[in-house]
């Protein structure tokens, strides 16, 4: 009744870009479930940019992963043994078991997934946290109106692809920014954005201006850096900037008190901008609306999604390092185990 | 039926701090009112920081004053001749006649003032634009809750003094920042703020931290500069920053595309801050609520106000240059003419 298992722990806190030695893969033996517990077998591990923040010490909206601790993450898992009356062997659940092949749980925070409704991997993708981030940030803060221009970066990614497609559903123009021709073609031709620009293009600012002749009304900020600087001068009066990520800065090693506020704040004032940070948990109350709308849109083909899968838990560190550089093309998933054991 | 008159025009666009030669005082003859017109005699001219922006060319939320044009401004005036059936000789009106002793108007944009309700100067002060700015920015964007901490700079001024007093009415703690001991004493002892700090104190950041042991939930931004930098690290998760002015930067000569976004935006994200610019006209729909609430609070003594008066239109340029440096103590007014001619 014990189980050979594997986990990825944080070996050391990265300075700047994470490197392979910041992770350590450990073999261990998963014990049988105790009273009230279930034993989970991971099928899918979701890799997401926020995880870079958990590798750092210091204040943020969530506690850091301790050095030596299992890397955090959302998973789709099968219950393979249960001493909890709420769960049966064979149940598929959404959990936060992290980067490991097996995990014990007392059932708290687990949500059952119905495999008949959609591929179970969507529970950590378009119908999960990334989809909910796109849906709530865009609709609760961005509030795009018909005819307005919405810009989103990482446009082929899990969040960005949903943002642009929801903007289109709401009648807005959607302009994506992505890395490279293949992603841009996909965003335009498959996802139906009005345009998509390559952030590696040295003329990004000029091309973005051409692509947004009426300026930008909503900038969904998940990137920061050069993209933000190209977007900022194009923001219209009353533009809204939901901020859910800053992947361009996650490896920054300096964090100083800002000394530069004047020019940005002047634009906030004269253009009456709204810049508002959020994390997906802030809008937990919208989860029901999200599931209803998003699953409908996916069914009707109005929202498409793309998955980018690497194989085996061992691949997680490299896949995550690649994700921070945009090496993935679509929602980054790790196939940790088969659908059925 | 013609009238000797005087006006202050913009002689040249200031570079940095305005200087006396940027203004020119002109004598002229005000013609009698034509068909449908009224002739106004200015009693009070309001001087406000936003006027610095009107002296610049370049994009903002309002058109600049042309070189040679009369400086813009709100006034309280008496109708001294009328060919407009809506107004009678002797009516007191709120107008935007600018920096001049007399003005013609077709009646559009004039609002009658009842001198029995309150001193007429309050129509450009606590019951006018500055009061409405404080009321709407604090209540519509800042949304202070009982027990929260609200910080406002220029706390003895027209807007700041109202912000802190309204915050107190709503059950919040109010911390002011002002220039010098006299103003701070007034803010604490007369206006009833919980504390007031001197922005000239080299230990401002440390003292502000002591004065806000539970952090800052609302920062009403009308100043920018060093005060913003002291406030920013103390903002709590979900803090709100209504931005209505940046007087510390109005004389800046550089306006570059921001290159510094990372650290501020990181805080916006992790603390889920809301930073939102506004001007008073954005909340015109709240004017009725404002007048009802604010006139009640003034009557009950819950909101006090202080006026700082210089005498004669000729004093306006120097008074305005002083206002930008905080030389005024209370709402800056120019007494252009007597209450009754």
UniProtKB/TrEMBL annotation, chains A, B:
<dbReference type="GO" id="GO:0016628">
    <property type="term" value="F:oxidoreductase activity, acting on the CH-CH group of donors, NAD or NADP as acceptor"/>
</dbReference>
<protein>
    <recommendedName>
        <fullName>Enoyl reductase (ER) domain-containing protein</fullName>
    </recommendedName>
</protein>
<dbReference type="InterPro" id="IPR036291">
    <property type="entry name" value="NAD(P)-bd_dom_sf"/>
</dbReference>
<feature type="domain" description="Enoyl reductase (ER)">
    <location>
        <begin position="16"/>
        <end position="334"/>
    </location>
</feature>
<dbReference type="Pfam" id="PF16884">
    <property type="entry name" value="ADH_N_2"/>
</dbReference>
<keyword id="KW-0560">Oxidoreductase</keyword>
<feature type="region of interest" description="Disordered">
    <location>
        <begin position="1"/>
        <end position="22"/>
    </location>
</feature>
<dbReference type="InterPro" id="IPR041694">
    <property type="entry name" value="ADH_N_2"/>
</dbReference>
<dbReference type="InterPro" id="IPR013149">
    <property type="entry name" value="ADH-like_C"/>
</dbReference>
<dbReference type="InterPro" id="IPR011032">
    <property type="entry name" value="GroES-like_sf"/>
</dbReference>
<dbReference type="InterPro" id="IPR045010">
    <property type="entry name" value="MDR_fam"/>
</dbReference>
<dbReference type="Pfam" id="PF00107">
    <property type="entry name" value="ADH_zinc_N"/>
</dbReference>
<dbReference type="InterPro" id="IPR020843">
    <property type="entry name" value="ER"/>
</dbReference>
């Amino acid at each position: 009744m014990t189980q050979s298992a594997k986990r990825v722990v944080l070996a050391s806190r990265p300075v700047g870009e994470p490197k392979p030695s910041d992770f350590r893969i450990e073999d261990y033996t998963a014990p049988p479930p105790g009273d009230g517990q279930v034993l989970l077998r991971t099928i899918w591990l979701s890799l997401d940019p926020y995880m870079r923040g958990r590798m750092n010490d210091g204040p943020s909206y969530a506690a850091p992963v301790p050095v030596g601790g299992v890397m955090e993450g959302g998973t789709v898992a099968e219950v393979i043994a249960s001493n909890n009356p709420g769960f049966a062997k064979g149940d598929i659940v959404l959990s936060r078991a992290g980067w490991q092949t097996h995990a014990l749980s007392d059932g708290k925070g687990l949500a059952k997934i119905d495999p008949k409704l959609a591929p179970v991997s969507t529970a950590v993708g378009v119908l999960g946290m990334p989809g909910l981030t796109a849906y709530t940030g865009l609709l609760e803060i961005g509030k795009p109106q018909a005819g307005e221009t919405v810009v989103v970066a990482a446009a082929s990614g899990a969040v960005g692809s949903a943002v642009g497609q929801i903007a289109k559903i709401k009648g807005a123009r959607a302009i994506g920014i992505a890395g490279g021709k293949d992603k841009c073609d996909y965003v335009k031709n498959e996802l139906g954005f009005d345009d998509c620009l390559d952030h590696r293009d040295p003329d990004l600012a000029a091309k973005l201006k051409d692509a947004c002749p009426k300026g930008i009304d909503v900038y969904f900020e998940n990137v920061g850096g050069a993209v933000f600087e190209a977007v900022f001068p194009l923001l219209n009066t009353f533009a809204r900037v939901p901020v859910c990520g800053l992947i361009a800065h996650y490896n920054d090693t300096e964090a100083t008190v800002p000394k530069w506020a004047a020019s940005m704040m002047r634009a906030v004032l004269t253009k009456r901008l709204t810049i508002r940070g959020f994390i997906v948990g802030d809008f937990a109350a919208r989860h029901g609306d999200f599931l209803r709308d998003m699953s409908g849109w996916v069914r009707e083909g109005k929202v498409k999604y793309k998955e980018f899968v690497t194989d085996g838990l061992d691949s997680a560190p490299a896949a995550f390092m690649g994700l921070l550089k945009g090496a993935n093309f679509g929602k980054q998933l790790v196939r940790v185990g088969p659908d059925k054991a």
